[in-house]
Amino acid sequence: MARQTIAEQFVDILGQAGVRRIYGVVGDSLNPVIDAIRRAPGMDWVQVRHEETAAFAAGAEAQLTGNLAACAGSCGPGNLHLINGLYDAHRSMAPVVALAAQIPSSEIGTAYFQETHPDRLFAECSHYSELISHPSQMPRVLQTAIQHAVGRSGVSVVSLPGDIAALEAPQRAAELALVTRRPTIRPADEEIDALARMVDDAPRVTLFCGSGTAGAHDEVMAFAERVKAPVGHALRGKEWIQYDNPYDVGMSGLLGYGAAYDAMHEADLLILLGTDFPYNAFLPDDVRIVQVDVRPEHLGRRSKLDLAVWGDARETLRALLPRVAEKADRRFLDRMLKKHADALTGVVDAYTRNVEGHVPIHPEYVASVLDEEADDDAVFTVDTGMCNVWAARYLTPNGRRRVIGSFSHGSMANALPQAFGAQFIDRDRQVVSLSGDGGFSMLMGDFLSLVQYGLPVKVVLFDNSALSMVDLEMMVAGLRPYGTTYPHTDYAAIARAAGAYGVRVEDPKQVRDALREAFRHAGPALVDVVTDPNALSLPPRVTGEQLAGFALSAGKMVLNGGVGRMVQMARANLRNIPRP
């Protein structure tokens, strides 16, 4: 049997780990790997226009499937383009292996053409970043990279010189015992017992949930019922915890709404469940706090804790539930549910009246109609900035929809490339990119990649010819907005010129039909909606100190965000309050 090259072995091992495609841009240092992919059954090379798209796409695939995904860049400038998307994947805990091709091994350290040191450059955005400088390092280095990416939920980077990739491997890659799934982590009995005592001793308990509650919806609801706890969430926890939730009190943070802030501050015990919520200005400092997290390094880094619990949210609650006494007093819960419903009702009318006659179009109206027209199992990818507001306040989770964005890294231009990766997983599932014109135009070249592969991604473009979040930041800081506007651009015409479906909408009465037509279209489509850049309001609770310290968390103000169908759920939850 012919010996494998290092490149062939590299591709073979990725295939054993479940990788089915590698996103990237070809280049000479990658040529041996590209040729190995071309000949490998079950492995595809996905050509993009920009390596940043490759990393975002791989990160999206990993987030949606929970499986390892991969991307690659050629030496020097090629793999440098991966870095922003890899930062996002790493901070989103998405298991991704990146191949950073390197210059010829004999030239490393001589300031050779295109020389960089990717094994150093990617160290901060990865759990593992190493250079293969000799064939005998394979397959151990790649196997170690995979174990780090999967086992620690993040990025691994392998730097590989093109000349090494073309050499014969010392031995053929056998079937390797690769880790492809993370285990669940149950806390020790001592921590469970300590937490149970704290819950029993606290008359008022509030849960604040993040993305670590994925798969734990039933356990959270059972626990909330047992201790009569309001349940708030961070943005990344919304899709996992808000639906079918009779204890929902909304979201806290920069884009917050409802009574989550009050429920957290008026509790006797706050349980931070599977969240690394970064905005400590929104956390109480006079309430007992417990944090439960699968990553011990997250515990206590945002607030002072009275108890740190290292464990999976679902396993922790399963162990905790039979050990706590059921609470009979639900006055705190009922008061927070009423406050939440009142808070949402108070903002709805102001932002929904006469919207069908408002020009430029209210962006919140577009988001509300999109929420109604999109499929019940749609995947939404969301640009950073004002599109985060629309996702937070208008997209209704139901346990089947997914919403991903650059929620931890905060990069512009993430939505289109994440939609690209999401659609590759399943061409029959509706994928919708909520893009701002600033973010879309930054990586617009990869709209051509949608057309090239015939991916039926639907781009809903909130086109206000401005970087509105930056406008807002400047105004709150007392500065005159500057450098934040763009010339008016007909992006629908660009989409049509690229061979996709494109429609420009300037009349609000045309929004619903335009979305329906785009959704019916079999291929990629772009709906360019000209929206009002001057729709601004405050979140439910912002202190003078927070405003004065705007640099702490840019974006304290949000667009005038009604709350879509969430108000219906809040009103429905009021029916759970027992009547005397």
Task: Describe, in plain words, how this protein is organized in 3D.
This protein is α/β, with parallel strands linked by helices and 580 residues long. It is 37% helix and 16% strand. The strands form three sheets. It has a seven-stranded mixed beta sheet with strand order 10-9-8-7-11-12-13. Strands 2-1-3-4-6-5 form a six-stranded parallel beta sheet, sandwiched between helices. 54% of the residues are buried. Mean pLDDT is 90; it is low at 537-542 and 544-561. Keywords: Pyruvate, Thiamine pyrophosphate. Residues 5-116 form the Thiamine pyrophosphate enzyme N-terminal TPP-binding domain. Residues 383-529 form the Thiamine pyrophosphate enzyme TPP-binding domain. Pfam families: TPP_enzyme_C, TPP_enzyme_M, TPP_enzyme_N. This is Pyruvate dehydrogenase.
